[in-house]
Design goal:
Length: 440
């Protein structure tokens, strides 16, 4: 009877345009009634609240706040200049800068949409002005945004950890090498495109001043250093790392505000206070929305548990003779198809509690599966016909959605190919968690 929740969920989402949290909760409650399990609704509030009363969840609003503070504090420009110093002199240099900036930004924002919005407004006009085809510039920007939820911190990984009771620190550690692997693939594709399409760039490109750029970027780089180093080496928990990130982001934003040339101290204070207020407001809105979704997801998860649906799916899979890598590949394809039409959080709420326990029961490592699923659903954001990132980039850049969808197809195929490599070679994901002691 839990399938009733999926049918109602899809019908309400597509037909009424209602919020995902309300649709999920309503569908799950209706399924309790249809399955003659209404007696379980009496203890539902206690069960749901106990599932949300998790210390690790504090990391989510703190990481969101840190990302908002960083994005509003002038740090994006400093990171772009740093990326320009590192890779700007290569052929197709601004394309490399686009990918490198996404690597830096992903270690702060944890959101593909936030990454895409920041790099689109900052880099696409400059790439176009220097001779890059606008469609290619926007497609590369959208594709590189998948690094946002993969390289920690990642709100999606925290969400997954909550659904499946998997260590968030282990997921963060597991996302590092896959994130760098995806970035390397995008660098390679841009190098190929630079030669094939004669993209501009090279030794004659004007570079930002070295010392000033390094000094401005250093505070920003402290955030990923503290988070990744502290979590991987066991010095801090993800929640403590998130709190440190907020402190560093606040101090960095204040320093950037006061060091602006030609700005008085009073104006700098006013600007900084405005940035902090806007960041707090935005973080509160996003956090509230995510926790409402988590509440609804807990209701759906409870329904799935009492209906023994994972066990039923496992029995069907066993009867079909699908196991191990074959099952992982099957659900990978399914998630890719679903992700092309559905928001990643929506797909995670619906599919993860149903399909992932069977994969883990079949011997797959929970951390490996978690990282692969998070990447898989994030790729859906850049997948036509409904990709959320494509919509954001198209709107901000002025490139029509259809032209952008055509331009991103080679990059989408590349991302899917690298996803399959990660599925088939779990050691790429598990190496750092194993070295850090998160995985045996």
């Amino acid at each position: 009877m839990a399938w009733i929740a999926i049918i109602v969920f899809v019908a309400l989402s597509l037909g009424g345009g209602a919020a995902i949290a309300y649709v999920t909760g309503a569908a799950a409650v209706l399924s309790f009634l249809a399955a003659d399990q209404a007696r379980h609704l009496a203890i539902l509030p206690q069960r749901v609240l106990s599932q949300l009363d998790v210390f690790t969840f504090l990391a989510m609003p703190l990481f969101i706040l840190a990302g908002e503070l960083m994005s509003r504090g002038g740090i994006t420009r400093a990171l772009i200049d740093l990326a320009m110093l590192v890779v700007g002199r290569f052929r197709g240099g601004l394309g490399h800068v686009n990918v490198a900036t996404s690597v830096f930004m992903s270690s702060m924002s944890g959101s593909a949409v936030a990454d895409a919005a920041a790099t689109t407004s900052a880099l696409v006009p400059e790439m176009t002005k220097r001779g890059y085809p606008r469609e290619y510039a926007t497609a590369l920007t959208a594709a590189s945004s998948v690094l946002g939820p993969l390289i920690p911190p990642s709100v999606v990984m925290i969400f997954y950890g909550a659904l499946m009771n998997v260590s968030v620190a282990a997921l963060f550690a597991g996302g590092i090498l896959p994130g760098l692997f995806i970035a390397a693939g995008l660098f390679a594709y841009n190098a190929y495109a630079a030669v094939r399409y004669d993209l501009p760039g090279g030794r004659d490109v004007e570079m930002p001043p070295v010392v000033e750029t390094l000094l401005r970027a250093l505070p920003a780089l402290m955030v990923p250093a503290v988070m990744l180093g502290g979590i991987v080496f066991g010095i801090v928990t993800p929640t403590e790392a998130a709190a440190l990130a907020v402190v560093i982001a606040t101090a960095t934003g204040a320093a950037y505000a006061y060091l602006q040339p030609g700005v008085s101290s009073r104006q700098a204070l006013r600007d900084f206070a405005g940035h902090v207020g806007a960041a707090l407001e935005r973080a509160a809105i996003l956090t509230g929305a995510i926790f409402v979704i988590l509440f609804a997801a807990a209701i759906f998860g409870y329904l799935v548990a009492i209906q023994n649906l994972p066990q039923q799916i496992a029995a069907i899979i066993d009867a079909a003779g699908i196991s191990g890598v074959g099952y992982l590949l099957m659900i990978t394809v399914l998630f890719l198809i679903i992700g092309a039409f559905m928001d990643n959080m929506m797909a995670m709420v619906l599919l993860v509690p149903l399909l992932i326990p069977t994969a883990i029961a079949g011997g797959a490592d929970p951390v490996h599966v978690g990282v692969v699923v998070c990447l898989n659903l994030t790729i859906g954001l850049v997948s036509p016909p409904v990709g959320g990132v494509l919509m954001v980039v198209s709107t901000m850049s002025g490139v029509s959605y259809l032209r952008l969808a055509r331009a991103i197809l080679p990059l989408f195929i590349l991302l899917v190919a690298m996803l399959l490599v990660l599925v088939l070679v779990p050691e790429i994901t598990l190496y750092i968690p194993r070295q850090a002691g998160f995985v045996q």
